[in-house]
Each structure stands twice: as C-alpha cells, then as structure tokens.
Amino acid sequence: MKRLALFLVATTACTPFVSRAADAASAAEAQEVAQKKADKTTALTKKNKFVKGSDDAEQVVVTGTRESHVKARQSISPVVVISSKTLERSGELNVANALTRTYPSITMSARGSNTNSLVSSIQMRGLGPNETLVLVDGKRRHSTANIVQKPGPQFASSGVDLNMLAGNMIDHIEVLEDGAAAMYGSDAIAGVVNIITKKKDHGLTLSGQGGANAYLGSGEQYQLDADGGFKLGKDGYVHLGAQFYQTQHAIAWGPDHALLGYWPAGADTKNYFVGVKPGSESWRGRKTDYLSTPKETRETFALNFGKPLAAGIELYGQATLGYRHAEMRAYKYPYIVPAAGISELRPITGDDELDYAAELGLKGENLFGFDWNLSTVYGGDNSRISIRDVINLGELARTGYSPSKFWDYTQKNTQWTNNLDLRRGFKIWSMPVSLAFGGEHRLDSYQIISGNPESYLDGGPVEHAGIPPQSAGTWYRNIYSAYVDATFRPTRKLSIDVAGRYEYYTDTDNTENGKLSARYDFTNRFALRGTIANGFRAPTLQESHFSRLNIFAGTGSVGGQLPVESAAARSLGAQGLKPERSVNASAGFTMEPVHGLHVEADVYQINLRDRIVQGGTVRGAQALDAIRSFGFDVSPTATNAAASSAYFLSNGASTRTQGLDIKADYLVHMHQYGNLALMAAFNLNRTRLHHNGISTIGKPLLNEQTIAYITTATPRSKIILNALWTIGKWDVNIRQSRYGETTNMMTYQDWTPASATCASGGALRYSNSCFGQFKNTPRWLTDLEIGYKITSRVHASIGVNNVFNVRPRRLPGNLVPAGGSMYDQFSNQVPFTGGYYFGRVSASL
C-alpha cells in the first residue's frame, strides 16, 4: 500500500499537465549543455588547469533531475561531481579503485575469492553491487556476466564492471546520493553512478603511468592512454579514446600452516604437507602467495559522435569495447600426487572477457512543442573461465591420463534497452513547471555454456569442477516501463519534484514506485532538502539460474550452489525469488557560511526487505542427494557426506541502513603563494538485520557469519581529507583517508584445538554455528603526489599511495586457514597491498 500511495501521489500531481507538455530531457541530452559549460570553464582557467578544487560542484549536472542548467549545489537531491582530474589524482589506474579512493560512500572488497577477484564491482552505502545503478551518459549500463560465487559481502552479485570502460574517456562522474527507482528503474536503491564521457570535437591527449607495490616487491603495472576529437563535417563531432593496461600479481606473502613443519597440539594436519606427507620437505618454511591481486592485461576503446541532420534534429551514438585476460592463483599451497610423479600443482584460474556496448539515438526540439530523445543501446559481457596447471584426479585414476588445462564454462550476459523521452517546460499561473514522461523496453538475456567434458566428469579438476550440461542454458526476460516526472517551483525559493514509475517484468512481480523531493532556499547561502521514495530491485537472471559445484580435495567433501528454481533446491527448502523492496528517506542542508566555503550534510535511511542473500546451508546426506539429483557427478570425490553441503539463494533478510554524509570544500587564494583547494568528505554508515528468514524446513537462512557479511563487513565510517596546492608550475596533492572499523565472524580453523566445543553442540573447529569475532580496527592512509608542468601542454608527476605502508590487522592463528590469508579478505576496509609508488606523464596537443 505504501508504494501504491507514493505512485498515486506522483501520477495524480502530474496528470493535469500531461496533455500540455512533457519534459524528459534524457540525461544524454542535458549532458550536451553540461559539456559546453565545461568547455567554457576550461578556457577561462587554462592558465591554471590543474586547479579544479571546489569548481566541481558548479558543474551543470544531468543526474537526479530532468531539468537542464541545474548545478550540483542547486539540485533538489544531493549530487556529487567527481572530475576526471580528481580521478587522475587518486593515483589509481582502475576506475573502481579511483572512485573508492576519492569518494567515501563507495567501498570495495579487499580481495575477492576465486573468479570474482577477476572483476571489479563497487558497493555504495554498505549495500551490495546490485543495489547501485550505473549509467553511462544517462543510459543504463549492462552488468558483468560473472556472478560472485563464494560467500562474502558481494555474494551472488553481478554488478557493472567499471574497469571495462576506457577511463581516459571519462569527463566526470556524477553520483546521486538517493534512492531513484522512480526515475531510473531497478537497482537504484543505494544511489546512482552516472559516468559522463568526453564529446569534444578537437584536441588530443596522451598519457602514461607506471608503478608498483614497492614494499611487496611486486604488483608492477602500467597504463597507456590516448583520446582526441575531430569535427564531423562542419557541425558534428567524433571523440575517440583507447587505453592499454597491464599489471602483475601484487603478492602479500604470509606464513602457511601447511608448510611450517610445526603446529600446536591438537591441530588438524590432514591437509598439511611438511612433516605429514612424504616428499614435501623441500617446501619447509616457504610462504603462501595465496593473497594476491590478479595478473591482468586489458584493452579498452570508446567512441562518441554527434551530427545534426536538420534544424533541431541530431543523430548521436556511442560504442565501447573492452577485452581482458586475467589470471588468479586459485588455491594456496601445492598439491602433491606421488602416484603420478607430481610434486607440485599450483592451479591458476583464468578469465578471457569481452565487454561491448553500442548506442544510437536521435534527439530534437519542437515536436508538437516537445523536446524529444529516442535511443537504443545494446551491450553485453562474455566471460570464459578456465583453469590450468591442475589435473582431474578421477580421470587420472580411471584412465591413467589427465589434461592439465580445462575450459570450465562460459557466461554471457546481454541487455538491449530502448527509450523514448519527452520534455517541456511551461507555466501554470506564473508557476514554472518542468514535466517529463517517457517509456522504456529492456530485453535481458543470460547464457551458461558448459565446459569441456574433462572439466566436470570424474569429479573434475582439483577443487574447481567445470559446469556440466544440466547447468547450462539460456534465459530471457522482457521489461516494460513508463514514468512521469514533474518539477514545480511554487515560489522562487521552493522546488518540489514528484516522480512515478511502473515496470512490468515477464519473469517476476510488477512494481509501482514513487518519489517526492523538495528543496527550500531560505537565502542564497542556505537551503534545506529532503526526499522520500520507494524502490525495488528485480532478481538478476544470474541469481535465478546459476549453479556451481566446488570440490574440496583431500577432504572427500563437496559444496554445491543449486539454482533456486530447480527441484533439487526446492527439496532443501528453496522458494522462488521475488524483487527486493526498499523505502528510502533522506534530509539535509547545503550552505555557504562564508564566501567560498561550501558545506553539505544529509542523513539517510534505507529500509530494504526481501533482500536476496544466501539461503540456508544444508549439510550431510540430504545435501549430497540434492546435488546428485541435479546431475552433478560427485561419485569419485564425495566420500565424506557429513562434511558436504548445498545452498541456494533466497529473499532471506530485511535490513535497515542508516547514515550521514558530510562534505565541505574551500578554495584559498594565497596570491603569490598560489592556491590551496581544501576538501573534506565523511560517511557514517550502519546496517542492521531486522529479519532473518526461515526456510521451508524450519532453519534460519542466515547464520552469524553471513549476517556479518551484509551488516558489519563495510567500514562504520570513512573520512577523506584532501588538499591540492598549486603554485606556478608546481602542484602538490595530499590526501588523508580514514577507514573505520569492520567486524566479521570467522570460521575456527585448523589450529583450533580438537577438544574445543561449540556452545550449540559439536566441535568448535570448522563449526557452522560458532564463530570467532574479528575486528579490523580503524586505519589511516596517507597519499601524496607532486606534479610539474614541463611546458604549457606537458605535465609530469610522481606519487605514493599509502606512504606509510599501512596494512589490515592480522588474524590470530586459530582463524587462519591452512594455505590461506593472514588477513580478513571479506573486509571492505584498506587494501592489503601496502604502499604503491607511481609516476605519470600527460600531454595535451
């Protein structure tokens, strides 16, 4: 009823005016105005172009509004503008890392597990990647095909991989800090990230950066960029950009219980090598390289064009293309197979990924008095997963032979989106009104292609079985939506925005969403603003249909993720997935207490129910029977039914996220001593579990560990303080970042005494109901960059991220898995890679 009421308020308020006009300046259309203004600003500040500072908030924005000529500080809902220079000064070569370094509400996992470490997804306001909508020039961006398979804060997500975009084609990024499902549709629960690309018809920019994680002695990386524009005829433009990126593993070496040759009394040594297995003494004292970043080569390309066809009509388009080859050392210590004469197996998981998108549109003016925009966007992501330097033990035992490289599976995800947007401004009894309405059709598809037979028969390769034919398939769905959005200005000081949206899904529930925002400017220096809205997120096709089998070598146990729609999953208590539903509320102010000092503060609350999380984990013979009934071949490996498990996804949780965002900036003119741009940003965030679902067989869906993943794995607070000093040809940037505490519930591992028991019964070691609480205490990071303008067109800089080589807190011995990480890899706190030294040269021609 609440969401229906909100929708009715929106549509009722707008209906009297629909016959008179329409608004819907698509975000891409309003961006043209923003780009022209940006070009003028660049020309005016050309003599000191490396000083941006507080000017970002004076950028005309296209996110969170259907009006044109709205600046960030004038917006009804809070919008943050992050310029390309700010991203560049982060020192990071990946877009996702740069956002995390410069914007406090966005975080990332310190290290993903297995294949999800090969892609990069952001989290906003402590919610998952699937709860943040990513746009490119106002158009919905397709997500990665790769679903996060292992438990953790990002489990089962398949967000947009920002790193598959050419970062040098980004003009700026606009972040809407509000729920906006009524404006943009599904996923816009935590907020909206809108990437605005370059569209200039002139100039050429070249740049290169290289660096390494010096304290680790690894992680060497470099990137080469080129972009430029030229005229298309007399009145059109083409802007092209390309980027090449390569990085080696950054390895955080650590002690490995399996290789030490000693252990405390009562330790579980069945998977140990030194001192346990014959022929392993040569490994004594070696450290594990399990904790590392991927080795990656990536090429990305982008193109924008626009060309007037007639008076008031323009053809425009965009294309992006990215290819990635990434490798991750899949598992910890070596495997030894004396019977086959193998003294070392070090499996490596690989991902060959192709990401693409193409857009074509027409926009114009005065179609029966309306501005209009018609567009179509087709994009997708293909991810081919393989594993090498490993063998299939079952096949080896059966035939005496096993290959050492396997194609495990391929995932493909595509999205075809068609939009028609209309807009028009008019007056009602001298009251300005901006009205927008439009419609959208989207076709989603998801495909799983099974790997070669050796990857799934006879138990598959060690610890990493491929996907068999019964898990393969292709799934589609259509989404039809219509929206209306109106902005009223009853007085010069009061602005009210009302929006409503209806979406029809062919595979899940339909939804109505509404949004009501208001802003009152008491003076030109102080304004209050607030929003209340409801939202939703439909289950992704990956969440509904993905399945996977993990084989734990040496233990005789397996673990399987079963598709929630399958009979096998339903036998364990699974139910069909339905959309997540949210109610968002925020309120805040923006002010300029003294000239040049800008301060914004907003509090927010996000109530999210029917949240899609890991369903109940079922162990024992029942789980093994379900895995077999689905068709997985586990006969050669599943000898330990008691330790085997199966799980599925469910709408198993309701959470409440509350937080506070504060931002301030001030540009100090010091005359002959240059200029000093100061910025401070703070995010305080807390998520609490309000409901833990019960499966159809009467078991809670989440335990203490999985609850912590969605509530306390994200820092309680994050602060970014930045100072940019420019004087003459020099510029110096200093950034201080504080990451607040995270808390996770860790599994008791092999060094836990066998005699220790869990309060709820059973052994404490490897318990699924008793866990060890681990707190990552707050950490400060210091970043420094010094730049110099060699000529008016060439700039060079050197810098260090994490000057003092700060690392996460280490786990105690009883919580460290054999061959695993000495850090909590599920914490969204500071990276484990330590200090990073880099140099960069750029030239504008």
UniProtKB/TrEMBL annotation:
Domain TonB-dependent receptor plug: 73-192
Residue ranges annotated for the TonB-dependent receptor-like beta-barrel domain, each copy included: 355-803
Entry keyword annotation includes tRNA processing: no
Any Pfam family: Plug
PROSITE patterns given in the database record: TONB_DEPENDENT_REC_3 (PS52016)
Membrane association type: Multi-pass membrane protein
Location of this chain's protein in the cell: Cell outer membrane
Predominant subcellular localization, coarse grouping: membrane
InterPro entries noted in UniProt: Beta-barrel_TonB, Beta-barrel_TonB_sf, Plug_dom, Plug_dom_sf, TonB-dep_rcpt-like
Membrane-crossing segments per the record: none
Signal peptide: 1-21
UniProtKB keywords: Cell outer membrane, Membrane, Receptor, Signal, TonB box, Transmembrane, Transmembrane beta strand, Transport
Family matches, as Gene3D superfamilies: TonB-dependent receptor, beta-barrel domain, TonB-dependent receptor, plug domain
PANTHER family per record: PTHR47234, SECRETIN_TONB SHORT N-TERMINAL DOMAIN-CONTAINING PROTEIN (PTHR47234:SF3)
Family the entry assigns: Belongs to the TonB-dependent receptor family.
Protein name per the record: TonB-dependent outer membrane receptor
Organism: Asaia krungthepensis NRIC 0535
